Amino acid sequence: MNRVSWKRLALGLFLLLFSWMAGIRAQTFTGDSIVSIPGRPNVYRLIGHVEILQQGNRIYSDFADYDQKTGSCQAYDNLRIYTKDNVFITGEVLDYNGTTGSYVVDRNVVLKDKDMTLKTPSLLFEGSDNTAIYTQGGEILTGETVLTSVKGHYEGRTGLFHCYEDVVIVNPEYTIWTDTLHYNKAGFTRFQGPTNIETTDYYMYGLKGWFDQEKEQVSLDGDAYVKTKETQTLFGDSIYYDMAGKEGQAYWNVMLLDTARNCYVKSEYAENKENLGRAFFTINPRGVVVEQGDSLFVVSDTMVMTYDTTRQMKDLMAYHDVRFFRYD
């Protein structure tokens, strides 16, 4: 056999040995006591300081039944799971499917990654795509934000949360109540269904829309309103509001209500600039001002309402084709 053939043979043996050793490292199991289970070929009962290594995932417990052929196991007590995607899970009962990489964990379940902590009574974790699903209530902590819901789906690789039923987000800057919500860890929230939002300065409502915590912006659709904690409420079919800049726009079926001065203006489009103390109305604006029990009705092409720092109306100005009347 020539030198080239010997080299090829040596290389082949090395690769075979490497593959065999890699296979051993990919699937190992230890315990203080290891016994085979009668009638269940390739299944071992592990008791005490159990450690199972399966395709880069590590499982620790006090007790486990391990199927060496499939890599599946049922583990109990003092349960700890470390996945190859740097996810850490604790609980009391585990049913792990070695073929699909699915973990079903029950009782006092806690899942952690580098950005968030999830607590729930029962969890399905899909190791193949790093997703977690709960259906019996869950609490998610990301930074200063706490998110609770009855059902939820977390995508670990994208950092997205999809939450359903009695969803509540509590943050030092705001609170959101809704039924269906999609949220990322940067604080961008998209909601569907009746939603209430409370911030330091506002109460808000809409049937769908989004809320951007970082930019302090909100978009509301469907029977929407933005109410200040003083005297004004802005209604509309669709409202966009920049809370940092304290200004917004409202579209269709718009009404700005001032309860302090007992007046309102309706239109199909409005802009409200709180820092300037001014609201602008166009597309069929009409206003009503009540004074001493009598109402003044005003109609024009354009209206501008000015108000003071307490958001109480000072003036209502009308421009072009102005008409007004009282009952007298």
Give structural notes:
This protein is mainly beta and 328 residues long. Helices cover 7% and strands 66% of the residues. Strands 8-9-12-13-11-10 form a 6-stranded antiparallel β-barrel. The longest helix has 24 residues, at 3-26. It starts with a helix and ends with a strand. A hairpin with a 4-residue loop joins strand 7 and strand 8 (117-126).
Percent of residues in beta strands: over 45%
Order of helices and strands: HEEEEEEEEEEEEEEEEEEEEEEEEEE
What is the averaged pLDDT score? 86
* Rg of Cα set: 31 Å
Q: With helices defined by DSSP (H or I, 4 residues minimum), what is the helix count?
A: 1
Cα end-to-end separation: 120 Å
Coarse shape: rod-shaped
- Low-confidence runs: 7-25
What would you say about this model in short?
It contains 1 helix and 26 strands. The chain has 328 residues and is mainly beta.
Write the layout of secondary structure elements.
Blueprint: H1 3-26, E1 27-30, E2 33-36, E3 43-54, E4 57-67, E5 73-82, E6 88-97, E7 102-112, E8 117-126, E9 131-134, E10 138-142, E11 145-149, E12 151-155, E13 160-171, E14 174-184, E15 188-199, E16 202-212, E17 217-228, E18 232-242, E19 247-258, E20 263-273, E21 278-282, E22 286-291, E23 294-299, E24 302-307, E25 313-319, E26 323-325
